[in-house]
Amino acid sequence: MEKQDSKPKLIGMTLAELQDVVYRGKMPKFVGKQLAEWLYDKKVSDFESMANISKKNKEWLAANYEIGRERPSRESKSADGTVKYLFNVGNGNAIESVYIPDKDRATLCVSSQVGCKMNCYFCATGKLGFKANLSAAQIMNQILSIPPAPKKGEEPMNPLTNVVFMGMGEPLDNFKEVEKVIEILTAPWGLAWSPKRITVSTVGKLPQLKELLDRTQVHVAISVHTADTAQRESMMPAQRAFPISNVMKTLSGYDFSHQRRLSLEYIMWRGVNDDIVHADMLVKLIGKIPCRVNLIRFHSIPGVDLKPCSEERMIMFRNHLNQKGITATIRASRGEDIEAACGMLAAKK
């Protein structure tokens, strides 16, 4: 994705990788930790700001590496306060990130790929096809660059409290880079976040889902959308490779009854998956696995002949699940007027 002549990016590197960089530059090992502090805690975007690193070492770093920070090229603001940012990522490609403020919280929906291989029928990103995986640097750049510093006279935006991998792409199809970002976000030398501030959304890509569950403590969201396997296969080709029954069987081996949370994402379409029969199929699929079901309004996209179901249907569906002992909520729709809502990201320039 990057130009052939571009220098390696420092953001997106783990502490071990930064220590390898300073070793190659014949610097003391502790400079690696100083670099991590400047990049991730202080969020600097130039070498000159690194006050406790010698001029000679900064010159060597600048000659051989880039910090990797790139400002978004465009932003769109929604009436509800949601902001969508466009980032150019090289080779004519672009991705989008969505900043979602909510009282004292601010969530960033990040992208992990340009386009997506999963080709879900109802998703604008899937219509793009797959272009490229993002590097850990390109994912971290989204997190470090948003919210941007306020312009003169502007009120500062709330700092990020949560990150959700629910933007463009299937995060577990780019697991190596996503896992590096999770390490940077949670490590004491990085941003030192609790893993409970991070959610990774997936169609259920195995075996990477099991690796994510074994190697991290982040929250997990599974894109279910229908418990009817034939219907799911017709709308989500990933069902053939990763049947939802196998995904749920894998999830049943983990503890979601305490701090770690499992969410099931369920977009509702009129006359497709919004009746009691489908609700009961979902209840059966879940069984005794502790989870929360997020019922999501469908946001129409070009070329897709699905329609959102009524509010009454969503309430009926939610109440039925609640009566069966399953926590279900209707997710508030944010940023639809700027095409930033669920399933709408297509990196339009």
Short description:
This protein has twelve helices and twelve strands.
Structural class given helices, strands, pairing? alpha/beta
Quaternary state of this entry equals single chain
Please identify which CATH superfamily of the largest domain we are dealing with.
Answer: Aldolase class I
CATH class of the largest domain: Alpha Beta
Radius of gyration: 21 Å
| Helix-strand topology string | HHHEEEEEHEHEHEHEHHHEHEHE
Give the overall average pLDDT: 93
Shape: globular
Just name the CATH architecture of the largest domain. Alpha-Beta Barrel
CATH-derived topology of the largest domain: TIM Barrel
Give me the count of strands: 12
Low-confidence stretches: none
What is the count of helical runs? Answer: 12
Percent strand: 15-25%
Q: In order across it, which strands form the biggest sheet?
A: 1-2-3-4-7-8-9-10-11-12
Helix content, binned percent: 25-40%
Overall structural domain count: 2
Major β-sheet profile: 10 strands, mixed
Q: Gap between N and C termini, in Å? A: 18 Å
Which terms summarize this structure?
349 residues; alpha/beta; DNA polymerase, domain 1; TIM Barrel; 2 domains; 10-stranded mixed β-sheet; two-stranded antiparallel sheet; 12 helices; 12 strands; globular
Overview of the structural elements:
With 349 residues, the chain is of the alpha/beta class. It folds into 2 domains: 15-64, DNA polymerase, domain 1, CATH 1.10.150; 78-338, TIM Barrel (Alpha-Beta Barrel), CATH 3.20.20.70. The protein has 12 helices and 12 strands. It has a 10-stranded mixed sheet with strand order 1-2-3-4-7-8-9-10-11-12, with helices on one face. Strand 8 (198-202), helix 7 (208-215) and strand 9 (219-223) form a beta-alpha-beta unit. Helix 1 crosses helix 2, helix 5 packs across helix 6 (175-186) and helix 11 (276-286) packs parallel to helix 12 (311-323). The radius of gyration is 21 Å and the shape is globular.
